[in-house]
Amino acid sequence: MKAVLFVGHGSPLDKGNEETIQFINNIKNKINVPIIETCFLEFAAPNIASGIEICVEKGATSVALVPIMFLPAGHSKIHIPHAIDEAKEKYPLVHFTYGRPIGIHEEVVRILEERVTAVWEQEEEHTDTALLILGRGSSDPDTNSEVYKLSRLVSERLNQQTTEVSFIGVTTPTVEEGVERCLRLGMRKIILVPCLFFSGVLMDRVEEKMDAFRKNYPDNEFASTDPVGFHPRLERVLLERTEEALAGSASLNCDLCQYRQFAMEHMDGLDHHHHHEHSHG
């Protein structure tokens, strides 16, 4: 019997976790699998091990894990595959497959385009407006580079010449550094575009930064788009990732990934009770 186990990041704020669960509930009837469950990496229950246990107890002989995460990073490259490795040892008769994160996808670019145009004044030419794309920030350079790629795709879609990138935590440039760069380029209006799925700690932090920018730069205009949110377009991408995971055709190969093998050997411990330099949203 097949099962799909969606893996959300988890947030210290209940609202973010509830949004994740509601999003999965909305697409369950579009997945032709008898067992569909949701778990979280941290901050919320059940965790991955418990989520797998629930699937097995319901009779699953094959479990496809699908990460509800924006970009491939340490969580999707290391922590979830490690949990799968442990599950394979615990349940040797159960078959496990693993899907890809959302990643760079045409539908994601379209969502961000919609988010930006919703706060643009249509009559403006936007020559003195900058877009500042906000990534979560990661210790994995590959993940951060994906934010730059996404920024370029959005810029070309909107024909927006001044588009900069910054990160909310962990790495640089910071949001403050991104804003200062836009101001030095002569921009009057700056639109912050958070690449986040849901409401949570990081979106609260973005709002706090917006208040500070308006206070510190009273002659400039600042706006922020809504987060990506659990948009119908995102639903289509997640269903695509689910089909890949069920078919075992996801191209992210974590069993043989040298990056993961090296990281596992050098991490202090893989029990996922880590504390990053930023709060998760």
UniProtKB/TrEMBL annotation:
Keywords: Lyase, Metal-binding
GO MF assignments: lyase activity; metal ion binding
InterPro entries: CbiX-like, Sirohydro_Cobaltochel/CbiX
Keyword Metal-binding: yes
Pfam entry (one): CbiX
Protein name: Sirohydrochlorin cobaltochelatase
Species this chain originates from: Alteribacillus iranensis
